[in-house]
Amino acid sequence: LTPTGIKNEVLKHSAKLVDSVEKAIEIPALISDLLKSYSRNETRIKLDLNPSEALGKVLFSIVQNVVFAIIAAALFVASALLCTTDIGPKAAGMPLYALIGFIVATVIVVMMIIKWVYYFKHSFKG
Fold first, then answer.
1. For labeling, which of 1, 29, 85, 95 is most exposed (least CB within 10 Å)?
2. Sign of the CA dihedral 105, 108, 111, 115?
3. Between 32 and 1, where is the model more confident?
4. Nearest to 68 by CA among 106, 118, 95
5. At what angle do helices 96-123 and 53-83 cross, to 10 degrees?
6. What is the CB-side half-sphere exposure of residue 94 using CA atoms within 13 A?
């Protein structure tokens, strides 16, 4: 705490104070300009997203689940339609292709359920 040190600290902080006051004086004008542009429907928001690797994995997983769900639903519908026909080899009283479609769709759904249970079990510990 020397006179020179105190003087330097006061000068440093007073310069910061002057900068802050100058910026604070500009705030009402900036808000006024923003409100005017908003009222004229000229407001734009620029959003720049740089997704992280974790977000990419989550999005990939979501898309993968949707694709598998669509495939399973299509297999169920196609197999049900095949059951209304009198096609080729029969197994368990229905066309073999329909039975294979039902089995594959069921396996996909069971795998998705196991994946979801595993995810929720490990994601929400606590």
1. 1
2. negative
3. 32
4. 106
5. 150
6. 13
